Amino acid sequence: MRLEDILGLILAAVMLGVLLTILFWALWANRKRRIALARLAGTLGMQYLPSDPEGDARRALTFLRFFPHSKGHKFSQVVRGSFGGRSVEFFDCHYRQVGKSGLDSLVVMATGADFPRLAVWPEGSAEKQFVASGLARAGGFEDIDFESHEFSKRFYVTAKDRKFAYAVVTPQAMEFLMGCPQHSCIELSGGEAVASTGGQIEAEELPKHLTLLSGFLDRIPDYVWKDYAAGKVAGSAR
Asked: What is the pLDDT of residues 105-125, one digit of tens each?
């Protein structure tokens, strides 16, 4: 056998070994994460489901708000229960979008209200580029500025209803968000509050996102909850 053939076989064997190592590592990491999510669910008094087909249609509606051009949704790693007196659900979604595949996690908390669309994006997020490009404004969303220069520097707030944004993002909410170590995106829409990082959320990070959503909702003034109670026609555009 020629030397070139021997070197080719050795190279092929090395490449196969690398691929098998990567595959093994991915399977091990996924199994470790599933175990961690199941344990966390038990600790929080929640339910863990590797999959839950009955709820996938509802999850798709929520996910499409973040990725309107996505398709082929496959949901898994569902954690659901109650946190701070509100129903919550966490899940992963594999999807396809513009010729590529993605994997993102969402944390969804029920509000019991009927809120207009509002989003709070942390500085440096991909959504910042979306806002700056003018696409958000073209869709009817405004970039809302606040009196707090420090908050406006660290966060982008977009909404179709400026009055609603000022009513929700109070000085207390700004202080809470700036002091929160978990800077994920928060979005209010209809009866849901959603947290997302634009990627996969690990089990140990989930309690921080739950605390973030719960704390943000707790700082919404009482009169806003009354004005936007579910089933009530509020005077702002949805």
From this structure: 999 999 999 999 999 988 765
